[in-house]
Design goal:
Order of helices and strands: HHHHHHHH
Strand content: under 5%
Oligomer: single chain
Number of strands: 0
Radius of gyration: 17 Å
CATH architecture: Orthogonal Bundle
Length: 192
């Protein structure tokens, strides 16, 4: 990669990291929009993975996960935040967002020659689903009883409700927004 492309990539990743941090900090402020902003938290990771591939997607996921961990550690605002201090809950699933989104996009668009907009939409959905599945799975495996006590409901019921409400919303929003942004970025940068 030449120096101009490397600078462009680093600039893009810096902007995506800044957006992630803004979304994390904004979602902390209790207001009706904070749940909606929380849906946006990992879109920069997915977009980076779709545009720049595995390595960049994993790096952006690492940054997003680390920011989530630091927020849970330094500025907790949820009864579940103590669980997110564990990197297996906060960081690893976020790295996997980037890896899965990049893999699905590469498989569909580059190998199977599926339209890039459709590929980016499906990759975004898989990236968000990966996050939800791994976070819920790690909470279950690591803290089943502790989470049950905090949520005041059966673990499977409580996390099933979280998955059906947040997980499906995040997946749908990602599958709609990422292709729009990716399409605009591709046209601007003449990516085929």
């Amino acid at each position: 990669m030449n120096k101009k492309n490397e600078t462009s990539k680093l600039t893009f990743m810096g902007v995506m990291l800044a957006l992630t941090i803004v979304f994390i900090l904004t979602s902390m402020v209790p207001n009706p929009a904070s749940a909606n902003i929380a849906v946006l938290l990992f879109l920069p990771t997915i977009l980076t993975a779709v545009i720049y591939g595995f390595k960049s997607g994993a790096i952006m996921g690492l940054c997003a996960g680390t920011a989530s961990l630091l927020r849970a550690l330094l500025m907790p605002n949820s009864p579940l935040d103590p669980f997110f201090i564990n990197p297996l809950v906060s960081v690893i699933p976020r790295i996997c967002i980037g890896l899965v989104a990049a893999f699905v996009f590469a498989l569909l668009h580059r190998k199977l020659k599926v339209n890039r907009i459709v590929s980016s939409s499906i990759a975004a959905g898989f990236g968000m689903f990966t996050n939800t599945l791994l976070v819920i799975g790690s909470l279950y495996l690591l803290y089943g009883q502790g989470v049950t006590g905090i949520l005041g409901a059966g673990f499977v019921v409580a996390l099933g409700a979280i998955f059906l409400s947040n997980g499906l919303l995040e997946l749908t929003v990602a599958a709609i927004i990422i292709p729009i942004i990716y399409s605009a970025y591709s046209r601007y940068n003449k990516i085929k």
